[in-house]
């Protein structure tokens, strides 16, 4: 019959159930050892992934601006892609040695994440930081490269932490990042690098472009718990901005009992009317005088309609200003200057200047000759509090150097 299992199929199922549990465990261990575990997509919902991606997008946007100021090249980091991943996914995308930068949060968030950069990208960034053009990427990645990229990431992620503080509504800070060169092929399990890389974790992938020198991808790896903490903090900060529910309105008080109307006065009370609506200026004549012009019976002016009266004895005169004269008292000016003559100022004599890259400065040693922009015999500059005021020449006064002023700059 359709839908019924045959006897052979039932026997096959029973045989599979009777198989030793050890064989299944061994098979599972082999699968895990081979890196064939699949990421558990149920650990994060699509809504949580979108929220984490939004946080990472804003964070990395500020980091791109900081990297631009460091390398002085156009930097573009695209919108991130958030996925669940296992160690095998990282091995498939980063086969060559790469740089792992561990970022630990010390305030505001509890956890850490790892930023993954390709070796070539690190060489380009560090070469630009040292004053090169980004083409010096030969040779191995050394301690100088790792130190430079750590400093760049410290500034970038520090800017990112500032953006997170604004977005999440609380102070967030990080410790100095730690960079290390990692050969991924030497690790069968990511747990040897960081415990959270043993199972499923969050992988946030960005595309990074630096002029025409770099067009690559970078990754941020989040533990599941850390990703959920970012999501909860983000949702709570957004919820605090939502308008509060309106307070319930109090029940209306019972209407007071009607009071008996007062006896009518012989004269009709004037209605409360706005002077502007009547086409009259606010400071017009008293109401009891302008009512007859409107065809209305003369009425008694109510106290609340009383208008301010002009005082007839008020003395009003146009204002007169004293003329300023151009009289100059040199004695008074001299006294004012005397008050500041004892203020100390810093006088600097500048022999010359030059511009050097970081790599040139690192090569300095005793005996190094630095060429300046001044020609031999050319007057040197005299600066007072950093302001260029005079030119002069170097002289020797007994055993000290001095400066003879030859020209005052006007």
Q: Could you say which overall geometry the principal axes of the C-alpha atoms support?
A: flat
Can you tell me the CATH class of the domain at 41-239?
A: Alpha Beta
CATH topology of the domain at 41-239: Chemotaxis protein chec
Rg of Cα set:
41 Å
Order of H and E elements: HHHEEHEEHHEEEEHHHEHEEE
CATH architecture of the domain at 41-239: 3-Layer(aba) Sandwich
Q: Supply the number of helical segments.
A: 10
The CATH homologous superfamily of the domain at 41-239 corresponds to CheC-like
Measured as a percent range, the helix fraction is: 25-40%
* Share in β-strands: 15-25%
Alpha-beta classification:
alpha+beta
Low-confidence stretches: 17-35, 240-248, 261-306
Give average pLDDT, whole number.
75
Count of beta strands: 12
Oligomeric state of this protein: single chain
In whole angstroms, how far apart are the ends? 111 Å
Give me some keywords for this one.
410 residues, alpha+beta, Chemotaxis protein chec, Surface presentation of antigens (SPOA), eight-stranded antiparallel beta sheet, four-stranded antiparallel beta sheet, 10 helices, 20% strand
């Amino acid at each position: 019959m359709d839908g019924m299992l045959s006897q052979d199929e039932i026997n096959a199922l029973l045989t599979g159930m009777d198989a030793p549990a050890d064989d299944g465990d061994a098979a599972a261990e082999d699968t895990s050892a081979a890196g064939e575990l699949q990421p558990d997509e149920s650990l994060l919902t699509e809504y949580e992934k979108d929220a984490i991606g939004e946080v990472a997008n804003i964070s990395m946007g500020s980091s791109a601006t900081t990297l631009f100021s460091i390398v002085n090249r156009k930097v573009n980091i695209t919108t991130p892609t958030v996925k669940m991943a296992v160690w095998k996914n990282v091995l498939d995308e980063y086969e060559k040695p790469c740089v792992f930068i561990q970022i630990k949060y010390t305030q505001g968030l509890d956890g850490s994440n790892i930023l993954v950069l390709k070796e070539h990208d690190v060489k380009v960034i560090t070469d630009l930081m040292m004053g090169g053009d980004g083409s010096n990427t030969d040779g191995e990645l050394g301690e100088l490269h790792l130190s430079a990229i750590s400093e760049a990431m410290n500034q970038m992620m520090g800017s990112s932490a500032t953006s997170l503080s604004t977005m999440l509504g609380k102070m967030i800070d990080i410790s100095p990042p730690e960079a290390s060169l990692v050969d991924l092929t030497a690790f069968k399990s990511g747990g040897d690098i960081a415990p959270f890389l043993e199972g499923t974790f969050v992988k946030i992938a960005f595309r990074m472009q630096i002029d025409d020198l770099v067009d690559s991808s970078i990754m941020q790896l989040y533990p599941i718990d850390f990703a959920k903490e970012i999501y909860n903090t983000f949702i709570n900060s957004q919820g605090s901005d939502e308008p509060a529910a309106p307070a319930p309105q109090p029940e209306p008080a019972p209407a007071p009992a009607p009071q008996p109307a007062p006896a009518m006065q012989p004269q009709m009370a004037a209605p409360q009317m706005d002077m502007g609506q009547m086409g009259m200026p606010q400071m017009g004549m008293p109401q009891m005088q302008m009512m007859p012009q409107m065809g209305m019976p003369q009425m008694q002016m109510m106290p609340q309609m009383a208008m301010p009266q002009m005082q007839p004895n008020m003395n009003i005169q146009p204002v007169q200003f004293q003329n300023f004269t151009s009289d100059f008292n040199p004695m008074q000016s001299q006294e004012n200057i005397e008050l500041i003559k004892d203020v100390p100022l810093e006088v600097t004599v500048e022999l010359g200047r030059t511009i050097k890259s970081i790599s040139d400065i690192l090569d300095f040693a005793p005996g190094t000759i630095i060429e300046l922009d001044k020609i031999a015999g050319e007057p040197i500059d005299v600066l007072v509090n950093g302001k260029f005021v005079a030119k002069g020449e170097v002289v020797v006064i007994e055993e000290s150097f001095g400066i003879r002023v030859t020209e005052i700059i006007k």
